[in-house]
Amino acid sequence: MTSMEKRLHKELQLLQKEPPHGVKIDVESIHRNLTEWIVDLEGAQESLYRGEKFQLLFKFGDRYPFDSPQVMFIGNNIPVHPHVYSNGHICLSILTDDWSPALSVTSVCLSIVSMLSSCTEKKRPPDNALYVKTCSKNPKKTRWFYHDDEV
Amino acid sequence: MGNCLKAHNNDDISLLRGNESSDVLEQPSGPPPPYHHEPSQRAQLYYPSPNVSRPANQLTEEEQIKIAKRLGLISHLPTGIYDGTSKKGKECAICMCDFNVGENLRILPCMHSYHKECIDDWMMRSFTCPSCMEPVDAALLTTYETS
Lengths: 151, 147
Known about the structure:
The complex is a heterodimer. By secondary structure, chain A is an alpha+beta fold. Chain A contains four helices and four strands. The longest helix of chain A has 15 residues, at about 5-15. Chain A is globular. By secondary structure, chain B is an alpha+beta fold. Helices cover about 25% and strands about 15% of the residues of chain B. Chain B has helices spanning about 60-75, 115-125, 135-145, and strands at about 45-50, 50-55, 80, 105, 115. The N and C termini of chain B lie far apart (about 35 Å). Chain B: This is RING-type domain-containing protein. Chain B: It comes from Dreissena polymorpha.
């Protein structure tokens, strides 16, 4: 087993044992393909996204956890949020520049739920139309500018 | 003769020249070469910045110096053998495995400790503690200045 596989198995174990509130994983599908996880997220109770269900796709490269995973929203409910593009890409610094190998699937999910929770007005990023037309399929290839820490 | 370091390209020697030839630094530095993913050469990849990886022969002079300095700084950080006491923490936050007695650890100035291989791999990309994000080199430089 490579160190990436070992670490992912470890995370899977922990997530099964103590799943954080509103985060659900399909263990069967992960056992079939360890490098791509689909995680079900629920909007937090006290947020604008209460009762909404979302899906996140995680893709892990063979240098995980030294390299951050690719993380994006998939499915037919992409949250309407100033940092989430309509193609599912998320502008969140811990997914690229501020990644640390001590972060995990759980902590990324919790950061995303908290990012959604602090939103006060549901709207798309101002450059959504242009970005979605011109971006790469891999959100990690985007040079993000993290200009706003408030939401 | 007598160079026991295996050089993968003839440019490695430029690391030894230091500042004496300033003209070398004025080479036009075009755009970085395209990224090629070659799993077979993975062990030789260097990370001049966290999101940039290149084999040694494609590094600019500036990047080679940066990496050499980083290797030097890493070697100054204390290491230790895990003896089962919980003072140094019980788990490596990078591989998420418990420390086993006898394993090699490296202790950062913020007192977080990791398996030596795990943290050295990370510090070749970023000089921050994965757990508290404390910059490692700032603390090291203060140590140098006060001692």
